[in-house]
Specification:
The protein is α+β, with helices and mostly antiparallel strands. It has 2 domains: 73 residues, 3-Layer(aba) Sandwich (Glutaredoxin), CATH 3.40.30.10; 129 residues, Up-down Bundle (Glutathione S-transferase Yfyf (Class Pi), Chain A, domain 2), CATH 1.20.1050. Helix content is 58%, strand content 8%. The chain is built from 11 helices and 4 strands, in the order βαβαββααααααααα. Strands 2-1-3-4 form a 4-stranded mixed beta sheet, covered by helices on one side. Strand 3 and strand 4 form a beta hairpin. Helix 1 runs parallel beside helix 3 and helix 4 packs antiparallel against helix 5.
């Protein structure tokens, strides 16, 4: 069984999404962990010229961009399948993954989670309440739409766990531990979904490092 090497910063929700997908697949992998800032090094930029995490190597094949990685892993290791066959369910999965990458992460989680959790735990920063206040109105917009799209389904794309669940759960796990995220998610179906996701073995096996858990 060939090993998948995952390059990334332990604690990144995008890295966790890749690791959780590999856990769901039951595949052997190795996390090549980097320190904060190391993703801008010359060595890593040779692998990922945009200096983001994660990137992977598998049998000589190199790939970056989380959505591309997740889809590659699902195609390379077909069982269990993590993409719906039904066109509408697949479209919903893709839509929700796009919401994460275009709205939830850049407009909300990147700001609030850094200010509330990552900055204090890793860099010793004090949260900037003015910066948080600018992002806070977008929290209920993102959470409300994700909750609407979830509806009565057990998972984001329907009856079975998909790549959308594995991409969103690490992101929302952090956000739900902030006052802003907790208030928006409280009592929603999305909160129940996150509880369901967090007890999965794949999520338990990829918990963030202890300092980040303590900060949250």
């Amino acid at each position: 069984m060939s090993e998948v090497v995952v390059h990334g910063i332990f604690g990144s929700p995008f890295v966790r999404a890749v690791l959780a997908t590999l856990e769901e697949k039951g595949r052997r992998y190795r996390l090549q962990a980097m320190k904060p800032g190391e993703h801008k090094s010359a060595a890593y930029l040779a692998l990922h010229p945009f200096g983001r995490v994660p990137a992977i190597e598998h049998d000589g094949f190199k790939l970056y961009e989380t959505q591309a990685i997740l889809r590659y892993l699902d195609a390379a290791f077909p069982q269990p399948a993590l993409q719906p066959q039904d066109p509408k369910a697949a479209a919903r999965m893709n839509q929700i993954m796009g919401i994460n990458d275009w709205y939830l992460f850049p407009d909300v989680a990147r700001i609030i989670v850094f200010q509330r959790i990552v900055g204090p735990a890793i860099f010793g920063h004090t949260p900037d309440e003015a910066v948080i206040a600018q992002a806070a109105p977008k929290v209920p917009v993102c959470i409300g739409e994700l909750n609407r799209l979830l509806g009565d389904n057990p998972f984001l794309a329907g009856e079975h766990v998909s790549l959308a669940d594995l991409l969103l759960a690490p992101q929302l796990d952090y956000l739900s531990r902030t006052p802003e995220g907790r208030a928006a998610m409280q009592g929603t179906a999305l909160e129940t979904w996150l509880t369901r996701m967090n007890v999965r073995p794949s999520m338990q096996a990829t918990l963030p490092p202890e300092p980040l858990r303590r900060a949250a």
